[in-house]
Amino acid sequence: MKAKVWLITGCSKGFGRELAKLVADKGHVVIATVRNETEVAGLEALSKGKIKGWVLDVTEAEAENRTRRLIKESFDGQVDVLVNNAGYGSIGAIEEINDEEIKRQFSVNVFGAISMIKAVLPFMRARKTGHILNITSIAGLNGFPGIGIYNGSKFALEGIGEALAQEVEPLGIYVTNVEPGPFRTDWAGTSATYAPNTLADYTETAEKNAKAIEKGSGNQIGDPLKAVQAMYALTQLEHPPVHLPLGAPAYKRIRLKLEAFRAEIDEYEYLGLPTDYPEEASL
Q: pTM above the 0.90 mark?
């Protein structure tokens, strides 16, 4: 088996760190990004010689260019798999989260991912092969009170991934949106940001769900190791899917959403359907 080159963002902990180790243990080379130089040695020690820890903030202005230079100069233009894993959750009612935090949420979860996609695509197009994994969330398919801004960022990445999949498939490149439910990572712990000031009107909606998320941190049903094993297996498929939910809660929520969505569309079709010009007008 020829070793592939993987670029995985957000490898300080959680999915990124687990996936970097797994991929390296499988014999592949991993470019694993972290935010701080102090984290590099520990990351590289997970699999000697196979993991290159690299300090990168996906939101920095030169992230795309720096990444391209690294791939070209250090890996001879080879990058086989990109995993857009860097991200975090901004928790609180939409009205409670200030503009600066909203912009930061989208900068990391959306614009950072786009920078990485644009960095690797020239190399993947040249070699007519590649796979991009966007780690989105069940929250990218289903809105929940208390994480509306996070929902927005993940819904955006879902749409970008779906469109990109259609653009690059004829070029031999695949795109998969990976949609985890609740997993036992630090997503709801120190990795998350919580609105500092809450409004009483949202006590039974946004605040209630935010507290449930915080309370459940560390006890989620999802096993991160099994999740990254599924991600790796996904990249071995001849024709990978555009969507891959992870964990029973994700599948449950998606099916409930689809059922409710269909019922709502059917119920109010009488309002929305008759809004076209008559057919003869378009001839």
A: yes
